[in-house]
Amino acid sequence: MPSFDIVSEANKVELKNAIEQTNKEVSNRFDFKGSDARVEQKELELTLYADDDFKLSQVKDVMLNKMAKRQVDVRLLDEKPKEKIGGDKVRQIINVKSGIKTELGKKIQRLIKDSKLKVTAAIQGETVRVTGAKRDDLQAVMALCKSEIDEVPLQFENFRD
């Protein structure tokens, strides 16, 4: 029986490349000379450091531009509030969301059920598995999800006949 999985996750390689490009541009820019502005990455947690709030916002703008150029969707970013770390220095932690939360999974499941297509959707952890008898029905579900769900970017994986 044909099936596929609906997931929501960032391309980790492109994310890492965007962070490296951000750090390279920040280290080369004249307005950041002598400052301790940078972005550090630990798995799916990004930490932005800067000397003041203005420079922190500049670092974040550079990072968002680099992510956009590398097709890393910024809807996956979950920003925490800025915090002072001594003197004038500030940092901000940004978490990268991965997986479909239960509420969104239920919303996708309800959307598919209300569409009256002959498919079934089952939540499996942080993915939603869609199974149907016809390939065309599964492709209709993909189009429906792309048009209706806009809170997070969705990817469709493991398409099997």
Tell me the layout of helices and strands.
Layout: E1 3-7, H1 12-28, E2 38-42, E3 45-50, H2 53-69, E4 77-79, E5 83-84, E6 90-96, H3 102-114, E7 119-124, E8 127-132, H4 135-148, E9 155-160
Describe this protein's structure.
The protein has 161 residues and is an alpha+beta fold. 38% of the residues lie in helices and 29% in strands. Strands 2, 3, 4, 5 and 6 form a five-stranded antiparallel β-sheet that branches. It has a four-stranded antiparallel β-sheet with strand order 7-8-1-9, covered by helices on one side. Strand 7 and strand 8 form a beta hairpin. Helix 1 packs across helix 2. The longest helix has 17 residues, at 12-28. The radius of gyration is 20 Å and the shape is elongated.
Low-confidence stretches: none
Mean pLDDT: 90
**What spatial form do the alpha-carbon principal axes imply?**
elongated
Roughly what percent helix? Answer: 25-40%
Radius of gyration: 20 Å
Number of strand elements: 9
Number of helices: 4
Characterize the largest beta sheet: strand count, sense, and whether it forms a barrel: 5 strands, antiparallel
Backbone structural class: alpha+beta
Distance between the termini: 6 Å
SSE string: EHEEHEEEHEEHE
- Tell me the β content: 25-35%
Q: Key features?
A:
single chain, 161 residues, alpha+beta, 4-stranded antiparallel beta sheet, 4 helices, 9 strands
